[in-house]
């Protein structure tokens, strides 16, 4: 058995704890070890906070809006940004994968898929006085595999996964 869900959320600060609670509730119900659930929930919080903060409007000045459905974020015109982002989670036996996608300007090309071993060897941490940049490092440290990518002309995607540990009474366990 596996669990898959997707949320389309407004780019508002209140959406971040909602996504986190949804993930924690799903993982608790399925029987995931609380430490693993906590790590993934912190990583999700950081990814959602980035989507809220950086998935911002980059419309051309003076551009008129059209009659598109405001909740249909994935039908946005290229080069425009939405007031929404998407969170998708997959729990399947031994692994949980989470993706957060927005319609902002995207990431610089330097971020790529890394394993946790590569992260420890090559990660450059932001300075203690830096105002941003710690969230991406947290995601990398709390996950087993991370990918920061761009959807061409349509925003950023943060994808991360972690091998799961299960409680003895788990409903969804590796067979």
**Unreliably modeled segments:** 59-66, 76-81
How many DSSP H or I helices? Answer: 4
Helix content: 25-40%
Average of per-residue pLDDT values: 80
Which shape, going by the Cα principal axes? globular
Radius of gyration: 17 Å
Structural class: alpha+beta
Instruction: Give the neighbour order of strands across the main sheet.
Output: 1-2-3-6-5-4
Largest pleated sheet: 6 strands, antiparallel
Termini, distance in Å?
9 Å
- Give the helices and strands as they follow along the chain: EHHEEEHHEE
Strand content: 25-35%
Describe the structure.
- It is built from 4 helices and 6 strands, in the order βααβββααββ.
- By secondary structure, the protein is an alpha+beta fold.
- The chain has a 6-stranded antiparallel beta sheet.
- A hairpin with a 2-residue loop joins strand 2 and strand 3 (95-102).
- The longest helix is centred in the first third of the chain and has 21 residues, at 34-54.
- It is globular, with a radius of gyration of 17 Å.
Structure at a glance:
By secondary structure, the protein is an alpha+beta fold.
List keywords for this structure.
alpha+beta; globular; 30% helix; 175 residues; six-stranded antiparallel beta sheet
Question: Layout of helices and strands, plus pairs?
Answer:
Layout: E1 2-10, H1 15-30, H2 34-54, E2 84-92, E3 95-102, E4 114-115, H3 116-122, H4 134-142, E5 145-151, E6 155-163
Antiparallel strand pairs: 1-2, 2-3, 3-6, 4-5, 5-6
């Amino acid at each position: 058995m596996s669990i898959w869900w997707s949320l389309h959320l407004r780019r508002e600060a209140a959406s971040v704890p909602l996504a986190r609670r949804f993930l924690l509730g799903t993982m608790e119900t399925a029987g995931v070890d609380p430490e693993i659930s906590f790590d993934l929930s912190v990583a999700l919080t950081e990814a959602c906070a980035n989507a809220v903060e950086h998935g911002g409007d980059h419309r051309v000045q003076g551009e008129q809006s059209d009659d598109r459905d405001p909740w249909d974020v994935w039908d946005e015109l290229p080069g425009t940004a939405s007031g929404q982002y998407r969170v998708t989670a997959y729990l399947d036996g031994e692994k949980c994968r989470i993706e957060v996608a927005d319609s902002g300007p995207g990431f610089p090309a330097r971020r790529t898929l890394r394993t946790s071993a590569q992260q420890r060897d090559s990660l450059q941490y932001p300075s203690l006085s830096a105002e941003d940049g710690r969230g991406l490092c947290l995601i990398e440290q709390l996950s087993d595999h991370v990918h920061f990518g761009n959807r061409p002309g349509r925003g950023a995607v943060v994808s991360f996964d972690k091998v799961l540990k299960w409680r003895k009474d788990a409903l969804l366990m590796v067979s």
